[in-house]
């Protein structure tokens, strides 16, 4: 009987430790990102949880996905559910375009376009990519120039 209890206790310790590890890492990441220590992450603090190459659009998309109660801040429970800010997938081209279009005019200027690019991209690289896509050379990207095949700015219409 003693021989059976000892391996079971050891197994319980290892299983319990394995389950606590990821949660502790996520909690530590939350605590490091929570600059003002209010136990919530706002959009700026959320950026600290994203990878260095994540675009502003990707971070915003994941923030919106993680914000289950739509209060524009992420609590520890929401952060854990988002697997430390990594869940939520990636926006499709239309979602990325709409998130980047800050002035909601249906076009992206170079600054708005930069929000769709990896945050580590130098400005010169972003401008080259913008120029390559701007086929009519009007300094604005239309949805089709951005790569969206079918764009309907008014949802619900064919």
UniProtKB/TrEMBL annotation:
- Residues annotated as coiled-coil are none
Please list the residue ranges that the record marks as compositionally biased, kind Basic and acidic residues. Answer: 126-138
* SUPFAM superfamilies from the UniProt entry: EF-hand
Name of the featured protein: EF-hand domain-containing protein
The segments labelled Disordered in the record are 108-145
**Source organism of the structure:** Haloferula helveola
**Matching InterPro entries, A to Z?**
EF-hand-dom_pair, EF_Hand_1_Ca_BS, EF_hand_dom
Q: Which UniProt keywords apply?
A: Signal
Q: One Pfam annotation, family name?
A: EF-hand_5
Provide the leader sequence positions. 1-20
State where composition is biased (Polar residues). Answer: 114-124
Q: Please report the stretch or stretches of sequence annotated as the EF-hand domain.
A: 95-114
């Amino acid at each position: 009987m003693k021989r059976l209890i000892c391996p079971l206790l050891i197994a319980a310790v290892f299983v319990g430790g394995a389950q606590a590890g990821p949660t502790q890492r996520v909690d530590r990441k939350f605590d490091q990102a929570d600059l003002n220590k209010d136990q919530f992450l706002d959009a700026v603090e959320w950026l600290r949880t994203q990878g260095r190459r994540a675009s502003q659009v990707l971070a915003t998309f994941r923030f919106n996905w993680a914000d289950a109660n739509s209060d524009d801040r992420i609590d520890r429970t929401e952060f854990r559910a988002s697997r430390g800010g990594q869940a939520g997938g990636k926006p499709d081209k239309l979602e990325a375009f709409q998130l980047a279009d800050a002035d909601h005019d249906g076009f992206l200027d170079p600054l708005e376009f930069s929000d769709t690019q990896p945050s580590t991209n130098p400005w010169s690289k972003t401008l080259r990519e913008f120029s390559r896509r701007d086929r009519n050379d009007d300094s604005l990207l239309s949805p089709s120039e951005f790569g969206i095949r079918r764009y309907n700015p008014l949802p619900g219409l064919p």
